[in-house]
Design brief:
The chain is built from 15 helices and twelve strands. With about 375 residues, the protein is α/β, with parallel strands linked by helices. The protein folds into three domains: about 70 residues; about 160 residues, Rossmann fold (3-Layer(aba) Sandwich); about 70 residues, Arc Repressor Mutant, subunit A (Orthogonal Bundle). Strands 1-2-6-5-4-3-7-8-9 form a nine-stranded mixed sheet, with helices on both faces. A hairpin with a 3-residue loop joins strand 11 and strand 12. The termini are far apart.
């Protein structure tokens, strides 16, 4: 067993000790084990009033090796900032969470991911849109990130599971506590379909409203962009949106009727400059743009190309129609890969994007 991780688990489980204090302790003593061995010499100024005494009392009954073994036996993995397996997207945050607990699998770094969020008390329109967008996005191989809350969050993640896609739920409680309890089946299905249940809080931590902003920050941090399906003008969804904007993430919103209060938030976001999500292909096209911005060269129709250019015409074709034509011609390609090439062709001046995810040929090749 990795004893250094066992000591880190002890450190992260200390009552009243947050990530900033952990950072100071590690800087002062070098490792979690050294903090443990210096228990009687820790400066009380690092902790809240009577905090040091609480830590000593807690540690008297905490058997470092046994507690970590119990954690692993319960199927819970534990990953800290010191490890290579820590999500690269979260490392980019100003103050990344020191640790993440996981039941199931951690998000795959090489895969794009989208946060789909929205109202808990959603309409039938919102439910339909959540299923439509999440299902198509998951089917395209893109991970769906959300908080497994009632309403849009849980519906989106259920749709991803049903399409055999990957979805990851970030909880405002410990990973061993299914919240809300009504999502117990989804909670298990996510783990059984290569997804994961994640939390920055130690197992056994009950849900608490003061913990949900941190949950929302991690949802945004793990995602390449944010899709708001349905939200009121004043909604908890805005917390995630604000945090995503602070992180430099793009926001998309599904428009709704002007008379529908559950669409006020989405319509307001669009008025403020958010992207308009009219179809899942709009989101997948945006991911293709992000891929090219990150410096991944678009491939021409030669070695390494999927050959999209020869299927283009002078009248618009949707990416989905192009995919069907290529599949019929015996070319195996995923939708995100096709979109990446189409955006690359636009950058090179050989194609033009029109009406969302529709593309046309610019000139004869």
């Amino acid at each position: 067993m990795e004893m250094d991780k066992a000591y880190r688990y002890w450190l992260h489980s200390l009552p009243g000790v947050g990530d900033r204090t952990i950072e100071k302790l590690l800087k002062e003593f070098g490792s979690a084990e050294q903090v443990y061995r210096a228990m009687n010499y820790l400066p009380s100024t690092m902790f809240k009033k009577n905090g040091l005494e609480g830590i000593k009392t807690f540690s008297k009954t905490w058997e470092v090796e046994r507690e970590y073994e119990n954690l692993l036996q319960r199927g819970i993995s534990f990953c800290t900032l010191e490890e290579e397996g820590y999500p690269a997207r979260l490392r980019k945050l100003i103050h990344p969470p020191y640790a993440l607990y996981c039941m199931g699998h951690m998000p795959k770094e090489e895969c794009h991911s989208i946060a789909i969020i929205g109202a808990r008390e959603c309409s039938e329109y919102g439910k339909y849109m959540a299923r439509a967008f999440a299902g198509k996005i998951a089917e395209a191989g893109v991970s769906v990130i959300s908080g497994m809350a009632r309403g849009i969050d849980g519906i989106s993640q259920r749709a991803a599971v049903e399409k055999k896609g990957r979805t990851y739920a970030v909880l405002g409680s410990g990973v061993d506590i299914c919240y809300p309890a009504s999502n117990q089946r989804l909670y298990q299905d996510i783990q059984d379909t290569d997804g994961g249940i994640l939390s920055p809080f130690p197992p056994g931590t009950p849900p608490n409203k003061i913990q949900f902003p941190e949950r929302n920050r991690i949802v945004a941090g793990l995602s390449d962009l944010i899709l708001v399906v349905e939200a009121r003008a004043k909604s908890g969804t805005w917390i995630t949106v604000d945090m995503a904007l602070e992180q430099g993430k793009n926001i998309y919103a599904v428009p709704g009727r002007l008379t529908d209060r559950l669409s006020d938030g989405c319509n307001l976001l669009i008025r403020q400059g958010a992207g308009i999500a009219l179809a899942p292909e709009d989101i997948l096209a945006e991911l293709a743009v992000l891929t090219n911005r990150e410096g991944i060269k678009s491939r021409k129709e030669s070695k390494g190309s999927v050959g999209a250019a020869r299927f283009l015409d002078f009248y618009p074709k949707s990416a989905e129609k192009l995919l069907k034509e290529m599949t019929k011609a015996g070319i195996v390609v995923e939708l995100p890969e096709l979109l990446a090439e189409l955006i690359g062709l636009c950058v090179e001046g050989e194609a033009k994007q029109v009406a969302g995810s529709h593309f046309v040929k610019v000139h004869e090749r």
